[in-house]
Fold this sequence. Notes:
The chain is mainly α. It contains 6 helices and no strands. The protein starts with 6 loop residues before the first helix and ends with a helix. The relative contact order is 0.12.
Amino acid sequence: MKKTQTKAFSSLICSFILLAFEIWTYIETTGFRVHKRAHVQPATFPQIMICGMAIFTVILFIQSLLKVTRGMKEGDPENELSASINPFTNRGVAAAFFMIILCVVYTYLFDRLGYVLVSACISVIIMWLIGKRNFLTMILVSFLVPLIMWFIFYKLLTVNIPMGVLQPLREFVDKI
């Protein structure tokens, strides 16, 4: 079997693509607004999460690179034939690509439409994808959870998260 058909090689390629994506998302978060009075900025949490993911991606990249270049033993699970990454034949891969696209859309719309609205829309889509079909539950959970999370971060932790078109809601909460 060729090295390019092993799980180690597919892990190497996937870690490289994921690292590029993490670098891009980190750069995107540097464009978030900076609020002078806030101790924690809107970009802080996403940047911490991205850095954590990048650490594990680099570890996967190094491990895969070592296995591909140095060779593997016959019984090594990473030496097995890797599954197809063709999204037309593998539904799991298609779902993964769709989730990546959703993350890109989420990042793009976060500052423009606001946290609550974008999170609610993405949550409805994800719930639909995992098989939830009770529309009342989907709508309530998708809107109430981001709204409650925004309220906790905004009022209790003083983190200014973009509200986008729901800016009047922030002004209303400020009056309370």
